[in-house]
Amino acid sequence: MKRLINIIVLIGFSGLFTFVVLPRYARWMESGDCFRIEKIEVEGNDLVSRKEILRLARIRKHDAIWRVDLKAAEDRIRTNPWIKGVSVFRRHPDAVRILIEEKRPVALLKSEGHFYALDRELTLLPANPGKCYTLPILSFPAGGSPQYGKAVTNKAAREGMAFLLFLLKDRPDLYPKISEIGPGPDGLVLYTGRGGIPVRIGRGGYEWKIRYLEAILAEMETNPSLTNAEYIDLRYEGQVFVGFGV
User: Fold this and answer.
1) pLDDT tens digits along 174-194
2) Integer Cα distance of 74 and 85 in angstroms
3) Which residues lie closer than 8 Å to 7 by C-beta, 6 or more apart?
4) Residues 153 and 166 occupy one common structural domain
5) Neighbours of 84 (CB within 10 A)
6) CATH number of the domain residue 116 falls in
7) Residues 134 and 95 reside in one and the same domain
8) Which of 57, 137, 143, 189 is the most exposed place for a label (fewest CB within 10 A)?
């Protein structure tokens, strides 16, 4: 009999906790001032403004921290083409933290009078003013209908990016000395940052061509007579031709 009474009492307390205490606790958690959002921290963004991230996240100060749908906020932020990854989480009792990973531009694409930024996968991205205009330019058609977040399909543009990525890997110090890469009659043509001298790259053989290019640009910096060069030709293996005006 005593055991039965204990069971009944336990059931009674369980019901009281489930139907009375828990709902009141939940309402207190949602309405209590100590569980209102007072800080929204955004980290890792450079090319996407804090204002834009907050607009997409739709998280506002003084909202109940428990009502924030973290996954929905992440999904909305990911719609920005610059966003590679995002994590949104609560920092109790009163803060939400947004960690951003952006795509990293390595070049600008100039296509039919428009500029786009490109990452290593040739994804078309907005060319944010003041942020991307020091990058080398790839002057090729985008191919198809250009759309942010989609990859460039033009074969020549992809060849130009392949050369640029090889240069970044093998001779990163040479990368900022490149102004533009475009199509030539028989392959790529590169333009130097200083003087805009055209360098006929041609196709393939990037490894030795980059080494030769580095050497001749270094020579130009110390030899004033070479600064009048009208072109540099690296199309023929083991040979460098430098053309001068008459």
Assistant:
1) 998 999 999 988 889 999 988
2) 9
3) none
4) yes
5) 14
6) 3.40.50.11690
7) no
8) 143
